[in-house]
Amino acid sequence: MRYVKWLFVVLLITSLTSFVGKDKPTGGLNIGDVAPAIKFRTTLNNQLLNLKDLKKKYVLVNFWATYDAKSRMTNVSLNNAIRKTFNKVNFVSISFDEYQSIFKETVRKDRIVAPICYAETKGESSRLYKEYSLDRGFGNYLLDENGVIIAKDISASQLPSFIN
After folding, report:
1. What is the pTM of this model?
2. Do the bridges between strand 39-41 and strand 89-95 make them parallel or antiparallel, or are there none, so unpaired?
3. Where are the chain's structural domains?
4. Which residue numbers delimit the Thioredoxin domain (predicted)?
């Protein structure tokens, strides 16, 4: 009987400590997680940027490449939607093209006016590609003002339901 009481006390303490700190988001790639840090120098205006610097607004981080037609179309439609409708959103466009010239020409042709465009020239072998688990395809993450993921892989038509 004495061991049963001791076991009960241990289980009670263990269960109580498992709830401590659970209200603070942890790092990861799921909705409710704090997005992994991104540090880079923007390609178009050579600005040093840290994703954490963009707080105070929503941030939509979109991963794409010129060789992936679906991700390129998504990049264009999201950029157009944000530019025309949402001044509460910072759009971060990250390409995994290995050649700057191809990236810059595509941005010009697609009329991407996101102030934050970046080409990760290491492509699919980059740390960023692996850290965001993009081996299953390109996508995007919508972050709130605190860098917490509130949506994944959204389209331009879905954006208003998260922003308004």
Report:
1. 0.79
2. unpaired
3. 25-163
4. 29-164
